Amino acid sequence: MTTEATAGTATEPGAVAPLLSASDLHITFPGRRGADPARAVDGVDLDIRPGEIVALVGESGCGKTTLARSLLGLVPPTSGRVTFGGQPLDYRSRALKAYRKRVQLVLQDPSGSLNPRHTVYEAVAEGLRIHKYGGDERAAVGGALSRAGLRPPERFFLRYPHELSGGQRQRVVIAGALVLQPELIVADEPVASLDASVRGEILALILRLRAELGLSALVVTHDLGLAWNIADRVAVMYLGRIVETGPVERVLTAPQHPYTQALLSVLPEAEGEPVVLTGEPPDPSRVPAGCRFHARCQVLAGGAAERAGVAEDCRTRDLPVLSGSAGAQVACHWAVARG
Predict the structure, then answer these.
(1) Is the torsion defined by CA of 80, 230, 175, 326 positive or negative?
(2) Sheet of 53-57: strands edge to edge?
(3) Hey, how many other C-beta atoms are within 10 angstroms of the C-beta on 274?
(4) Looking at the domain that runs over 3-7+18-31+38-108+189-338, which CATH code has it been given?
(5) Is 55 in contact with 231 (CB distance < 8 Å)?
(6) Which of 11, 71, 155, 296, by CA, is between 20 and 30 Å from 121?
(7) pTM of the model
(8) Tell me: the pLDDT tens digits for 101-159?
(9) For residue 284, which of 59, 58, 61, 34 has the smallest C-alpha distance?
């Protein structure tokens, strides 16, 4: 990690090996009608340790869902690699099947991820049948539903998704992931479609599962408030790269990157005027030179970068990829100049 890309690195917590790690990950997609390839993920290092909850935060289109899908083995990287338990991810079908028993996906829309023709029992048992579970299927399904907060589980076995509330459907989806006893879950906007009264219950459930099962989680979200409530560490993503990362309390109480500051400024509890970013995020097939945020940066537009002597660097000089470690890091010329 070069000093240029950090603004005060926090002390690493004990030398615990990552459970899941991405190293110099790049994912590009062919451009449309002869356009340049889209750099959806453009150099990412990210570690998730055993029992750790990491929030991956950013606007729609920043690449966070593509990154999450790659960590699940659903999108092979163009370059770089993903490792799990210290071993590189093997993309052959048999190896991926074994991997997906250990790493499970929880989608944001329980209505869309549950087959309306399948009972709750069938939905939760599906993973066991795919992986040819040799134990007591009924006991495994009941145990998963109980851990997900649906008790007594037998009461829900023969129900269909349309007979459940939104929160109950999300618990069924979580039970379907838990039934295989994974070591890590990837939750893509896990409470986005739920009422505010239910959101806290689902977040509390994820925290309880971490405490009881030692479960690790990557939570993909656009909501920094959610990250504050659930994560140990946050990684803020913009245009294919992580631009700020660190312990959640440090990043969200003292954000260094102008993009993180802008995202935080619109939360209801934020003090001062919200920062209104101009324009839309750039096209990933046309990543700008220099800092990829500079065209929308309120610090550059307001003259603060000029006063710090880094305005030209902001427009022309690229920043290195942040390491995947747990320390607080930021990819911003202005933040580094401020010390």
Answers:
(1) positive
(2) 103-106, 184-188, 216-221, 53-57, 233-238, 241-247, 329-330
(3) 11
(4) 3.40.50.300
(5) yes
(6) 71
(7) 0.92
(8) 999 999 877 777 899 999 999 999 999 999 999 999 999 999 999 999 999 999 999 99
(9) 61
- 61: tokens are 């289109």
Residue 135 burial (CB < 10 Å; 0-12/13-18/19+)? exposed
**Cα gap 25→240, rounded to integer Å:** 10
Which of 9-13, 86-90, 263-267, 324-328 has the least mean pLDDT?
9-13
DSSP letter at 318 equals -
* Overall size of the chain counted in residues: 339
For the chain, domain boundaries:
3-7+18-31+38-108+189-338
Q: Which residue is associated with the tokens 């940066």?
A: 297
Residues with Cβ within 8 Å of 230's Cβ and at least 6 positions away in sequence, in order, are 53, 55, 203, 206, 207, 219
- The residue assigned the tokens 């356009």 is 35
Q: What is the mean pLDDT of residues 42-62?
A: 96
Give the pair of three-digit tokens for residue 3.
């000093």
